[in-house]
Automatic annotation (TrEMBL):
It holds the Pfam family Acetyltransf_3. The lineage of its organism: Bacteria, Bacillati, Actinomycetota, Actinomycetes, Micromonosporales. This is GNAT family N-acetyltransferase. It comes from the Bacteria. Residues 11-176, 200-366 form the N-acetyltransferase domain. It comes from Micromonospora globbae. InterPro entries: Acyl_CoA_acyltransferase (IPR016181), GNAT_dom (IPR000182), Ribosomal_N-acetyltransferase (IPR051908). Gene3D superfamilies: 3.40.630.30.
Length: 369
């Protein structure tokens, strides 16, 4: 691909120039950029920007890739960078990546640049584009979805972390003949960011919820109803909270907190996982803190969750399961309209090599109470 100015979706893609130096430093020295692009020099200096403009970007073009400055068409001021790397001509494949200056964030610049370069790449013969994101970089994952890329899987330990070690990358892919519009989400965002019935509110789990989740899911009575009945360690809960939004975006699971609507105090947690996306089936789970039990909060939370699952998430069936002696949880399910569908003997792992039975419930849209 040879440099060609591209204007589309409200941005201009052009070659870098020396008068971009200050804006390149502002973008590449920014902590958020360096967090998610571990190969950036740190600290990032004016000399690094000068090297990129005079040597690094031209080398990308010479190697069969692309290195565009993203500029405002009205002023030609630099807003970020977008490019193609890792070209594999025999496969018609390349990797697309981008960064945006702090001052330009929140304006759709990354999405516009990604769409513009994607369409230009396809028009010049590329067949498959990969977009790799850090597993916690949910803003970039939203850009991928908005630009028509589909989640394809996890590249385990695919990238070195700044300061040592390695981390996973999520692979998002778009083919030349894929639809141009945003990729439909398997698990859409909650309308307005939450669900509520005036008494109970559900909102997405986040990184700041670690203490609450660790306290809840290590309680003996909560652990006793898990399979196997072993408390999670804090690191696992921290990871669960950090990746909650990402796993929602990839369509794996929607994790939520249950809150008292009046006070905003946390009452518990719940979640919906896609047990069989092709069949339109999801599975739900929930747990409450002791002081909120016996007040109908679990029933309200499950009802809200089921209404969202059958509505915006467009599922056709919900499943839930409990160990046979968890009678309070079974009553919650039945109050919402779930029906007992069977006992799966020895389905779950217990302690010391034992197996536990699983009591299965199901709910169809017309049965929701």
């Amino acid at each position: 691909m040879t440099p060609k100015i591209v204007e589309a979706y409200g941005v201009r893609l052009r070659p870098f120039r020396l008068d971009d130096t200050a804006d390149v430093v502002a973008g590449c020295a920014d902590p958020l950029t360096r967090r998610f692009i571990s190969g950036m020099p740190s600290p990032y200096t004016e000399a690094d920007a000068h090297w990129w403009i005079t040597e690094g970007a031209p080398a990308a073009w010479a190697g069969g890739g692309a290195a565009y400055a993203v500029a405002d068409p009205a002023t030609d001021r630099l807003l970020g960078g977008v490019g193609l790397s890792q070209p594999v001509p025999t496969r018609g494949q390349a990797e697309i990546g981008y960064w945006v200056t702090p001052a330009a964030r929140g304006r759709g610049v990354a999405q516009a640049a990604t769409r513009a370069l994607t369409e230009h790449a396809f028009a010049t013969g590329v067949v498959r584009l990969e977009l790799l994101t850090h597993e916690e970089n949910t803003a970039s994952q939203r850009v991928a979805l908005a630009a028509g890329f589909r989640f394809e899987g996890v590249r385990r330990a695919a990238n070195p972390s700044r300061g040592g070690g390695r981390h996973d990358l999520l692979a998002w892919v778009r083919l030349a003949d894929d639809p141009a519009g945003p990729t439909p989400r398997l698990l859409p965002d909650l309308p307005g960011g939450h669900l509520t019935d005036g008494t109970v509110t559900l909102r997405r789990l986040g990184p700041d919820d670690v203490d609450l989740m660790y306290g809840l899911h290590t309680r003996p009575e909560v652990v006793a109803n898990q399979a196997p009945p072993v408390p999670p360690d804090r690191a696992a809960i921290e990871r669960r909270c950090r990746l909650a939004e990402s796993q929602w975006l990839t369509g794996d699971i929607a994790r939520m907190l249950i809150l008292d609507a009046a006070s905003g105090d946390p009452a518990g947690s719940c979640g919906l996982s896609l047990s069989d996306a092709a069949a339109g089936e999801g599975t739900i789970g929930y747990a409450l803190l002791p002081q909120w039990r016996g007040r109908g909060y679990a029933t309200r939370a499950v009802r809200l969750l089921a209404g969202w699952a059958f509505g915006p998430a467009r599922l056709a069936r919900l499943a839930a399961a409990t160990v046979p002696d968890n009678v309070p949880s079974q009553r919650v399910l039945e109050n919402v309209g779930f029906r007992r569908e069977g006992l799966l003997r020895g389905r779950l792992p217990g302690l010391a090599g034992t197996r536990l039975d699983d009591l299965v419930f199901g709910l169809l849209p017309e049965e929701l109470r």
